[in-house]
Fold each of these.
Amino acid sequence: MADLTHARDGHRLHLFDLDGTLIRGSAAAVEISRQLGLSEEIERLEQDFLVRGMTPDEFAVQAHALWAELTPEQVTAAFEGAPWLAGIREVWAEIRAGGGRCAVISLSPDFFVERLLDWGLDAAHGSRWPAVPFTEPIHRPGILNASAKVRIARELCGRFGLDLADCVAYGDSMSDAELFAIVPESVAVNADHHLAGLATHRYGGADLREAYALVRNSAA
């Protein structure tokens, strides 16, 4: 059972994954590639990453080459056209109004992830990519992996004066497993059975308000 001491007074840090979690059934890389007419190419790359063990930094290097002609306008179109869960802004507003904090930690490019700050986040962390349009290569050490999610969660706790015991994590894939293992409460959002078995709560659907209600109701 999660330690709900802070849940009752609202002072918790809610950590959200992006791909497959806030974006239902898709990912930033998929949406960006769709704008470039490269859906088949990114699908092959995604399979190399998800099934064949490609590392996040190698994925980034190859995606960077694939997106050589990417423009800021296409990034905007990809962000605005992504299949976001409903109610994201409302959930974050409710959490913050109650004294909590909200952050997104994602392996996806920071130039995509950081756009969510305009939706009411306290912090947004993505892999460090060069600015669009690209004039610089990928710096591999700036590309995040699953373990980096844990490191960033710890840093955010320090920033906000909280502990990992005060955190709730939301994710969909095994890249979230390390984070789920160190926080007291977690929500598997549209996740496969591997991650769902590690979570405190499981949610399948299209509305973040419903997923958040599982956390809110458990603290009542």
Amino acid sequence: MISRPPITYEKWGQCGKYFEWQDHHVFYQRGGNGEALLTIHGFPTCGWDWAWVSRALVGQFHMIVPDLLDYGRTLNSLKKTCTIMDQADMLDALMAHRGIDEVHILAHDVGDTVAQELIARHNESSLSFRVRSALFLNGGMLPAHHRPRKVQTLLAGPLGPMISHVAGKGKMLRGLADVFGPHTKPTDVSLDEFWPAMVGVNGRGAFARRIRYMAERIVHAERWKSALRDAQLPMMLVNGVDDPVSGGHAADAIEKELPNIKVVRLPGIGHFPQIEAPEAVAELVDQFHKCIVRNGYIRPSELKAAQGFSL
């Protein structure tokens, strides 16, 4: 079973800041000293996902932890569908607002896709900041190898807006628990704590708007794959192999199709490595960045495997 969150979702929201971007009231956390680390969360939750690893990382980095548009505490006042391009625009503006000119990225799930667009713009020299490295957790970086759950497919379909309102809370939470590893699933009590983070301030209708990213991944598949293939920066994937959506099968495909990305596998871990194995993820982030400091890139022989990891 996973550990209880080190801070509740409610308390997490009490010490954040807000940034106005177009018609959105963007919530974000920030803190720590060192090089900037931009974390980009996944669907259907929010930046609170990073609470399990933030205490270990905040001593090493200045962390910027936003809730994406229409997620968590970021108010989408017009209830509009926000694209991956919108998300990238917002993060670019947030970095400019904070006066940050270079960042390391730590991304998960749809956050991987947002990071791919940021890297595409980095390659084109069209960002206001420089991307120094990218570390990805489980996500649909190669959409041909993404295996969405039934509820995701339904939410992305024509009945999605209706389903987002009528699907029971228990069913939605069980669907979330199903993508965790077999021995790292949340307890009933800790699982219930995810619900306010999933619904956020924009309500249940946001589920159907957010899931549109799955169609965007197909439309922009070549751009976002090329972004990773062409990027001249250190990149690594930490993959929970027991994830039914983007687990070991996705890691195998990335290793084959994008050999410039270092792949680390976490046996027994599912879709949320940062929650299911926070100590391992924090250790791998530390190793990854120590290699960058020494060399500017990753040598496979220099990234030591922690016990149980497959490199």
